[in-house]
Amino acid sequence: MTAIVLPRPNRRLPLPLVVGTAAVAWLAAWMLEAPTADWITFTVLGLTHESHLGETLAFLLEDLPKVLLLLTGIVTLVTLIRGFFPPERVRPLLVGRGLVPGSFAAAGVGVITPFCSCSAVPLFIGFVEAGVPLGVTFAFLIASPMVNEVALVMLWGLFGPGIALAYMAAGLTVAIVGGLVIGKLGLERYVEDYVWALQGRPSTAIAIRLTWADRLSDAWAYTRSLVRKLLPYLVIGIGLGALIHGYAPTDLVATLGGRANPFAVPIVVLLAVPMYSNAAGTIPIVQALLGKGLPLGTTLSFMMAVTAISLPEFVILRRVIKLPLLAVFIGVVSTGIIAIGYLFNVLVS
Prior knowledge:
Layout: E1 2-6, H1 15-44, H2 52-82, H3 87-94, H4 99-112, H5 120-129, H6 134-146, H7 149-159, H8 161-184, H9 193-197, E2 204-208, H10 212-246, H11 250-257, H12 264-272, H13 279-291, H14 296-308, H15 311-317, H16 323-347
Parallel strand pairs: 1-2
Helix pairs in contact: 1-2, 2-7, 2-10, 4-6, 4-8, 5-6, 6-8, 6-14, 7-8, 7-13, 8-16, 10-13, 12-14, 13-14, 14-16
């Protein structure tokens, strides 16, 4: 690989002042958003805690700024870190390893490199081109959108460390087992021929020297772009969460997704397939479902299914793999998610 290094213009920004002011503003907004939501709902509008509309509106006014604050803060920080781990640096970490250590390494690397499912095709091609085994590649593709650090920090902030660590353990297990199973089945013949033709092709990487001012500016630009892209999904997700929180009868939620229904976990997995969101976008719905008494395992299965086996991802992956491999991928990941859901429902009772 030939590296071409291009200089970047040095922007003189008062970084300590900018970062310090932004941090203070973020913390002030974080502390004020919950009491402000209650004040608007129950004082200004005069609604009551006992009313469905009051609970729905309070949830919406509290969660929308809360999630946006988490996104802007965490994504900016994560993007700064991720700038040191572009895909061309990730691939060498996975080349030359066996299936088992490679799958573990790929799942772990996937956690700290939060690529969404829309990046599946270029990542898949890049990994195959670099000689990364098929099973190891899929372990990364499962872990990266499902168990990224943005979702983990948001889960930690909203629900505490227990649920965040449980979700990480479950997602890593699905990614590692999925990669091992796909690798053992020897399904390389079901990768599209044009992808294999790229293997061994010499490539050129363009390296850009960035100052901290450049990195901060680029991270903030990426964060603004990502928030704009996610905002419609967040509004829809938080709106659904608010409606569930305010209006959905607890008895109905318990009947459909509660422990008494033995098919609750596969039902929520099927419901998640047509949806498209990253893990952060599902958190408001998860918050509402847990508040209504949905078991932890069933709720985590829903969240994992939305991020790992959504219909849009199937369409994207079909561009690089053939239907038999796509079917195996769907079956393996779905089975793993359902098994994790049942397991956590038994362990957390």
